[in-house]
Each structure stands twice: as C-alpha cells, then as structure tokens.
Amino acid sequence: MVEVFGTDAEHVQVARDFLERVNADDAPLRLWLGPAQAATPTDLRLADCDGVALAQSQHLHRAVRRNTGQLVVTLADGEGRVRGRGVVGTRRSVAGTIAAASRVAGPLAVHAATADSRAPGSPSTQRTPSARVSDAAGAVWFAGRLVRAAVTYREWACAPIAALDPEQGRLTRCGEWQSGPRRFWADPFLLSTAVGDWLFMEELDRTTGLGHIVAAPVRGGTLDISAVRRVLATDHHLSFPQLQWVDGRWLATVETCAAHNPVYTFDAPGEPWRSIDDLPLFLLTLRIR
C-alpha cells in the first residue's frame, strides 16, 4: 500500500484522504512529507524535475524569483530517482510553492505507483539559493503589480453581437455594453436550451473587488437586463462559469482561490446554484506527464 507519513501533518492527512478515496492500496510506496533530511534514502519525497528535494531546488527558487507561473514537481527517492511527475502553479514564496506541491502529493503518489522510475538527472552543483532572496524577488514583483493596479482602471463588459468579421477584427453589436461605475460583467458563458438561452458571467463589485456569478436571459437576440439573477456568491472571488448537462442534471463549475471549490448543480437556468458531492472522483487538478 502507499504509506504517507512525515512532519507536515496537514498535508500528510490530505494525501491519505485522497489515496483512501481512490483505493490506492496496491503499490508498496512510502511517501514522506516534510524536511527531506528526515526521510530515509528509499522514501519518496517532493522534488523537482532533476530529483532534487524542493527546498534545495534551484528550479523552484528560479520560478519564484522570475514568477514563471508553474513548476514541474516530482516524487523522488534519496538518490534522485524520479517516479511521479506533475505541474503546480507557483506562489509568491518558496514555502508557499512547496505547500502547493504538498497538496497534490496524493495524485503524484498514484502516478508514481504506475510509472517507471527514471534515473537521477544532472542538477547544478551550485549551492542552494537563499529562500529569503527568492521570496524578496517574488515580493518585489507582486508589489509592482499592486502599484500598477493602483494607477490602472480595468474595464470589462459584455454585449450580444449580430456579426463578427474575424479577418478585420470587427464586430456588430445588437445591444449595449454592460458595465458601470459600481460593477462590470466578464467571462461570459452562453447556454442554449430548448426553453431559452441564458448568458452566465462574472459580475464584479468594484466596492469589494469580489466577483459573483449572475445569469441573464437572452430574448430577441438581446440581454434582458431587467431579469438578471445572482446564482452564486461566496466569500471569495468567482469567475469563469462553465455549465454542462450530464446524466440528467446540470453541472457547473467556477474558478476561485477558495480552498474548497465544489461542483454545483441547479434546477433550471437562472435558479440558485448548490454544491454537490456525489460525483465520481477524477484527477482534474494535476496535469500528469
């Protein structure tokens, strides 16, 4: 079976819960989450593409300093032999990125159980970069974003179009752009059903900086602004609604920074969304290579 242990108790439990749900009980693997120095040579631990433990990885420090947006993470033993492999998004600090990688240790272990081991890579012989330097560079980049945002007025809007000319980059609207001093609409998703069409989108409240999901019926080729309904709102920013009809019911997802991002359903377009937890498990959060 896949045995998960280590000093990082929170992520150890997350990985164990995941492996229990997918019944990963046929692979004799030991996965250590925590400082790599405490692991035994045969234990798998989070590493970079060269098999170097993440805390000592120059790839990780470089990704944080340069804000590359993603990092290849693997599971490797004490000799640098790589097993599971995936990609995670980088954060503004080395510790934050390691935490993000720790949250997908379970899926990585599933991949490691079925993947052949790969010989150690050729990591650089230079000393491990300072986490303080990498974190400081990441903080400077983020501060630059804040300064730019403070002097930039961002604007999105939605409107129906009658015709689009891809070659000349022109479009013909059949309604007004929907935006205003207190809110704007973005990330539209058009849903066509036998009983009518609906446009789902993010509505961002400029006073709070948070987006929620609204739905507007499309009637006569234009949006019925008088019938806009808020279908989903939480304490976090929501965007990019996606909807599908699956096995006799509506399923919907959004993008959010919340730790828990469930799948939703609703009775009919325009009705409030509610979360569901009876779907089969899919490995959607980790890109396996």
Structural Rg: 23 Å
Strand order of the largest sheet: 1-2-3-4-5
Order of helices and strands: EHEEHEEHHHEEEEEEEEEEE
Instruction: Give the amount of beta strand, in percent.
Output: 25-35%
Tags for this model:
5-stranded mixed β-sheet, 16 strands, single chain, 289 residues, alpha+beta
Descriptive notes:
- It is a single chain.
- With 289 residues, this protein is an alpha+beta fold.
- It is 21% helix and 34% strand.
- Strands 1-2-3-4-5 form a 5-stranded mixed beta sheet. Strands 8, 9, 10, 11 and 12 form a 5-stranded antiparallel beta sheet that branches.
- Helix 1 (9-21) links the parallel strand 1 and strand 2.
Write the layout of secondary structure elements.
Blueprint: E1 2-6, H1 9-21, E2 29-33, E3 44-47, H2 58-66, E4 70-76, E5 82-89, H3 94-102, H4 105-114, H5 131-150, E6 161-165, E7 170-173, E8 183-193, E9 196-205, E10 210-219, E11 222-223, E12 229-232, E13 238-246, E14 249-256, E15 263-265, E16 274-276
Parallel strand pairs: 1-2, 2-3
Antiparallel strand pairs: 3-4, 4-5, 6-7, 8-9, 9-10, 10-11, 10-12, 13-14, 15-16
Helix pairs in contact: 1-4, 2-5
What's a quick, concise take on this entry?
The chain is α+β, with helices and mostly antiparallel strands. It has helices at 9-21, 58-66, 94-102, 105-114, 131-150, and strands at 2-6, 29-33, 44-47, 70-76, 82-89, 161-165, 170-173, 183-193, 196-205, 210-219, 222-223, 229-232, 238-246, 249-256, 263-265, 274-276.
